[in-house]
Amino acid sequence: MVTSGSTLISKLPSVGTTIFTKMSALAAEKGAINLSQGFPDFPPDARLLERASRAILTGNNQYAPMAVLPILREAIANLIERHYDRKVSALNEITVTSGASEAIFDAIAALVRDGDEVILFDPAYDLYEPAVTLAGGICRRVTLMAPDFRPDWQAFSKLLTDKTRLVIINTPHNPTGSCWLAEDLESLWQAIASRDIYVLSDEVYEFIHFGESAVSVHKHAELLKRSLVVSSFGKSFHLTGWKVGYIVAPADLTVELRKVHQFVSFCTATPLQQALAEHLMAEPEASAGLSGFYQQKRDVLRNALADSRFTLLPCSGTYFQLLDYSEISDLDDVAFCEWLIDEVGVAAIPISVFYQQPPKAQRIVRLCFAKEEKTLLEAVNRLARL
Fold first, then answer.
1. What is the pLDDT of residues 178-187, one digit of tens each?
2. Would the pTM of this model clear 0.85, i.e. be above it?
3. Domain 19-44+288-384 has CATH 3.30.930.10
4. Are 68 and 94 contacting, i.e. CB atoms less than 8 angstroms apart?
5. I want to staple 97 with a disulfide (CB 3.0 to 4.6 A). Which of 71, 103, 185, 346 is the partner?
6. CATH value of 46-282 in 3.40.50.720, 3.40.640.10, 3.40.190.150, 2.40.128.280
7. By the 8 A CB rule, do 230 and 203 touch?
């Protein structure tokens, strides 16, 4: 019998409340402009909201099929073919999940066994390591260095062992805003081709890239045969609160993935799936304008801070901009973000929390520019005074 004096041994002893929750709570408490957590402050397409309302009111409120609503799986397959010229099996290779986070968690739980090693690229999204730990795996890390945060493939190759089971990649990259090049995917493939290693490609910002077309595992004929590619409707349609994502993988990997998915969420909200399917069919190019839409917001932020004491790092994708504040303060980035909220009234995210071992003396914070222009201008005007 468990008594009140029993000691619970945590499976995640080093994990606390996420930095996103902390900074958003501080921003709300202090009345600061919140450029920390990555969510838009503007509404999604009204037509999509109308479709969701109609789906709820017309009876689409019971369980959907475990993997995906049939109408949505066809719409996703068509989306992938249009954007990537890749044909996938709508029935056997597409699984809709309750957010991209669930997709990532399911994939890791399905593939990683006790003692398996998983390679991450630091700074890495904070979900990856806890999911690997819960699966019994061990994380090995390659550090990406400012200002361009490009992968060091020699360092990567040195981490490969007979225990390496999975590599997690993320492009366009959160938190740095960097994007991989086609040569990076080829270098990854050359390094793992002869080994029994899988790839989990987090591509939730796939339609938010600036300049050349975004690189995707969908476009690499060899990698896609052993990869799971994660996407997010929340990021693509400004609907982070809907928590609808999907994952595309070869049929054999999908079988294993769905074994986990059915016991995590079983299925994702039926009316939301119905609404997204109808929207994709009625507005097939809805995501095509995302890059230009967010590039304009990025440029508003960058132009307003161009003459400030912040150094703006390159931003090739996502809706995040990194700022080096070395000329302004010697505080570490967590303390600097707390100071920004208290003294400047702007909330940012310290990027040290994305590393296992942050580079010494690095002074960089992340801003989210998925905001109304008036919100951005008020925030950057405050920052530009520093």
1. 999 999 999 9
2. yes
3. no
4. yes
5. 103
6. 3.40.640.10
7. yes
